[in-house]
Amino acid sequence: MIDKETVPQATFLDTDEIVINMGPQHPSTHGVFRVILKLDGEKVIGSECVVGYLHRGVEKIAENRTYVQFAPYTDRMDYVAAVSNGLGYCEAIEKLLGVEVPPRAKYVRTILTELQRIASHLLWLGTHALDIGAMTPLFYTFREREEVLKIFENYAGARLTTHAFRIGGLQYETYDGFEDQVRKFCADIDRKVDEYEQLLTGNRIWVGRTKGIGVLKAEDAIALGVSGPVLRGSGVRWDIRKAQPYEAYPELDFDIPIGENGDTFDRYIVRMQEIRQSRRILMQAVDKLPTGPIMARVSKVIKPPTGEVYHSIEAPKGELGYYVVSDGTTHPYRVRIRPPSFINLQAFDQMIRGHLVADVVAIIGTIDIVLGEVDR
User: Which fold, 58-350+357-375?
Assistant: First the structure.
């Protein structure tokens, strides 16, 4: 129910303000997302995000499944970054169990999640550019994303909702040619990113549609709890891979790109640089990939001791956290998920005020939301 005091109702032909709906069936809302816009002509003076159209009760499902049974459900939240979702969940349960994952498993996990970061950013760039009116980048980015999906398919048999990990390590050993395929992808991706930047970075239409649009200052970004490229685009150098290292990240060298102005253009540049940094991580991880077991000693029937844990990772869209409470049985007593898309959406109203209706599309795109993760 919409609060009429929050969004004043317009009167016919007797007001400067109108209220319109954008979505939930709209090609540029990136899912079943509805925005109520309060307008003064073409200028946005207020907004309200309406979510829940894709709600599936994932957290309640977790409480009615065993720890192992619930793992594949995480792949269906941010369905363009399934590997990252699975990593966060497995690490949370491993923390609850006090299990140390073997070194080889850590490195393979790192490789797969960085490939997933690149694939997620490529899909974001292609669809974001298409929203703003550039069609060519969509074909370019999906060309490279296909190479990542081939690696996932060769490893786990799935392309989109890739279930790659197990509590305690990996589902499978790597296939013959895995390292070579990753190296080949890394050898090409820098040149491909250069192509994207040639198309967009200096393009006057792209610059006009992104520079100065959706500005989010650093202090506001922190106050709103946003994370990931949205936070770093505002100039805040915060990345969980550095701040609270996990898997193989402590042994790898990489930088944290940040923006200066906190606008849509800066967030674009940050994501482009993150693709380059992910490539740098991948090359190091493949070269250092150790031999050895891929699974820790974990009971087939997982019954963590009574307690609770919160664990988060740096997913492609920001901080993905899992809060799990164990009562000592085979089912979690409580599971609460902190999805970055949902939290980052809090900044939308502040980012859009004072801009035009056409800028709504650019700002939804720059946040990079997936409604499966927002609604859960």
Answer: Cytochrome-c3 Hydrogenase; chain B (1.10.645)
